[in-house]
Amino acid sequence: MHADEVRRAMSPMERWYWVCDQLSPLNVVARVHVRGACTPEDLERAAALLVAEHPLLRVAVDAGPVGGLPRFTGAATPRIPVRAVDAEASEVDRWVREVGDVELTTSLDLRTGPPARLVDVTRNRGTADECHDVILTVSHVVADGTTAMELLRRLVELAAGAPPRPSRPALPPPEELLPRWVNRLPRAVHFVVTTLADGIAAAVARPRRLTPSTPVEPRHRRTRFIHHELTAARLAELTARCRREGVTVHSALTAAMAIAVAGSAPGRVTIGSPVDFRAELASPVGPADMGAYVATVPSHVEVRDTGRLWEVARGASRDLGRRTRFHQHLALVSLLRFMSPRSVATSARAVAMVDRMGPGNVCLSNIGRYDFPDRIGEWALSGAQFIADVSVSGCLVATVNTSHAALHWNFTYIDGAIPGERAERLADGAVRALLSGLAPTGTAVGTGTRG
Known about the structure:
The chain is an alpha+beta fold. The chain is built from twelve helices and 16 strands.
């Protein structure tokens, strides 16, 4: 076995994601629109080169008979499958259907590997108007939103003829890269005390969680998808207003989601925020290094008046800032060694606890500005964005990135637990709350661009 191959037991964090995926699909999906001629052979060649560059794309997962002791082993056939879909010229949003009906509802076969697959949705093939929606689906066991976007960008580069690179080194699991002070006992005790104190404060404040309309058993949960985006003009308004109000775009989006969940009743709402910790590791890793390098921390966002977006956003910013200063995200990664179930068969208690009090009940995963190129070779690119499965971690997840001068805001939810009409109402309500904060008083607002 070469030094660049991954053959090891899963870490507690990886094992948790794998257990979730065994119960209900846990994928990360990245999509980009490509204008120009692209053949299936171009994508198959690029996919093969991408596998050669990343050791974690050459793995499968071996586990015991009850889903215990999962470990990475070699993929039986380390080749990313490419599925071709020929769409009608009028089906401009066919990619939304493919993501919602197939990619989010179907787990990758990690027993044989590799942990990725590719879809090419083609319109007007062989004409001057030929275009493609290229969709890359990766298992959350080995990828987060940033990873998926990086892999997709590199795949398009390779398909356009970029030279291949040598295989990247195989990195240890994320927990082994944490700063030493995180895992030391006094610091771990501090983390536990901080977490318990936060739990007591939350119990006193009684923040609202999104309650399922109908309980759905973990193995029957399937993710559905609603697509929104803000145009370049709206995005410019948002960033300028955030600067004036002294808050981040993430805080404004968090506030909008809290307002939508609160509805007409004031109170505190829990919104989870996955925090990227790549730069905080003892040996920092870059976005091109595969792995899931995010940990979700909860913010208890106070909504006193649903019409005061910026007041809510400032409270959300303070709460999340305090939690990251106390390194709660790193604490959660470290504490997973005590909390992650050992097997699928023994996961019921952990899954029930996450259902009852986990930070992902309503979640906003925002990777911020991602500079996906506007052109690669002869191709014009647009609409690069990512979407995430909910699996057993919550009810409603929003994924956000700013690319190609637009803010892509995708909502996923558990079908049945959140009926489609209710999910639409929550998603539209969040977008409307955000746009209301940008509009002059008394101005009617819509709900942005829908797909």
